[in-house]
């Protein structure tokens, strides 16, 4: 039986923005709401903030020039200056370059008069045809298997990762050493898909893929490091609009240091195509 999920805060709501009046003709200003369901612990999920900022930047760019309507945010470089509270947030967008192949825009996520996330976006055209070559072969099934750990509100992960209340999220048990009270390599795999209404809209699926590129738990968790791992900087790539269905997220690290660790996340859709990627530098929590 499919578990019923909350529908009051679908991902499309995160990207549903209202334009604000401004006297600065060079800056687009918007207001939106990020529901408490899009949090990990008490903190708004970083990938959600990047995707919401991308929605603001896309709207300002395409409304300023209708000929750019087919462009998408193919790269996002985000600096996290603070952690906003769930609720109302504002966005300020400025265009730095407009071109036929590449456009550049900067977006600030603002709350309480403070810029808390600053993202530099590169806009371009997404891949739409078959992949010419790929080195992303994986033994991860396209859908969660019977051993997968679902993020329900009554599970340990579901109590922390509230995204499981408004999207379907399952952790691959084979890579979740911490869930068995063991230690292992700093890696994680999971499956995620949006609610049915969001899944029908290609624009929302693309934004959801950007969000999913930051969905993995911090991989040092398999080394016994539990707790909030603040992201210092993250770069996200959007490659194509995913096919409807489950997304696979594969997270790995090259090095976990004394204070910092890196984490790469690869997002693959149900057809096997790479739809999004991210690389971040984050601060390691203290060992428990």
Give the helix/strand layout.
Elements (H helix, E strand, L loop, with lengths): L10 H4 L3 E2 L7 E8 L4 E2 L2 E2 L1 H19 L7 E9 L6 E11 L5 E9 L2 E11 L24 E2 L5 H5 L7 E4 L15 E7 L2 H4 L2 H11 L18 E8 L8 E6 L7 E9 L5 E10 L5
Helix pairs in contact: 2-5
Structure notes:
Pfam families: 4HBT_3 (PF13622), 4HBT_3C (PF20789). Residues 157-284 form the Acyl-CoA thioesterase-like C-terminal domain. This is Diacylglycerol kinase. One of its GO terms (molecular function) is kinase activity. Keywords: Kinase, Transferase. The chain has 288 residues and is of the alpha+beta class. The protein has a single domain, classed as Porin, CATH 2.40.160. It has helices at residues 11-14, 46-64, 156-160, 196-199, 202-212, and strands at residues 18-19, 27-34, 39-40, 43-44, 72-80, 87-97, 103-111, 114-124, 149-150, 168-171, 187-193, 231-238, 247-252, 260-268, 274-283. Strands 1-2-6-7-8-5-12-15-14-13-11-10-9 form a 13-stranded antiparallel sheet, covered by helices on one side. Helix 2 packs across helix 5 (202-212). The model has no long low-confidence stretch (mean pLDDT 93).
Which key terms come to mind for this protein?
globular, two-stranded antiparallel sheet, 15% helix, alpha+beta, Porin, single chain, 288 residues, 15 strands
Radius of gyration: 18 Å
Strand content: 25-35%
Q: How helical, in percent, are the residues?
A: 10-25%
Order of helices and strands: HEEEEHEEEEEHEEHHEEEE
Number of helices: 5
Overall CATH class: Mainly Beta
Average predicted confidence as pLDDT: 93
| CATH architectural type | Beta Barrel
Total strands: the figure is 15
Strand order within the widest sheet? 1-2-6-7-8-5-12-15-14-13-11-10-9
Report on the biggest sheet: 13 strands, antiparallel
Form type = globular
- And the CATH topology? Porin
């Amino acid at each position: 039986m499919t578990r019923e999920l909350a529908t009051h805060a679908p991902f499309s709501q995160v990207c549903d923005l209202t334009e604000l009046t401004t006297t600065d003709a060079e800056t687009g200003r918007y207001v939106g709401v990020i529901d408490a369901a899009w949090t990990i612990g008490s903190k708004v999920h970083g990938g959600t903030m990047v995707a919401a900022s991308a929605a603001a930047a896309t709207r300002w760019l395409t409304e300023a020039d209708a000929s750019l309507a087919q462009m998408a945010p193919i790269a996002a470089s985000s600096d996290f200056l603070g952690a906003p509270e769930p609720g109302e947030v504002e966005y300020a967008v400025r265009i730095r370059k407009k071109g036929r192949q590449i456009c550049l825009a900067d977006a600030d996520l603002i709350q309480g008069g403070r810029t808390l996330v600053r993202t530099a976006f590169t806009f371009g055209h997404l891949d739409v045809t078959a992949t010419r070559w790929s080195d992303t072969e994986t033994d991860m099934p396209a859908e969660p298997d019977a051993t997968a750990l679902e993020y329900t509100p009554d599970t340990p992960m579901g109590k922390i990762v509230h995204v499981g209340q408004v999207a379907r999220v399952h952790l691959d048990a084979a890579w979740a050493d911490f869930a068995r009270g063991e230690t292992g390599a700093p890696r994680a795999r999971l499956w995620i898909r949006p609610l049915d209404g969001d899944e029908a809209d290609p624009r929302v699926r693309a934004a959801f893929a950007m969000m999913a590129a930051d969905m993995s738990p911090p991989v040092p968790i398999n080394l016994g490091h539990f707790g909030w791992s603040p992201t210092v900087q993250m770069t996200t790539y959007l490659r194509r609009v995913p096919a409807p269905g489950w997304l696979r997220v594969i997270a790995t690290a090259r090095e976990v240091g004394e204070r910092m660790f890196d984490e790469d996340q690869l997002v693959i859709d149900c057809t096997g195509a790479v739809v999004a990627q991210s690389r971040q530098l984050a601060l390691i929590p203290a060992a428990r």
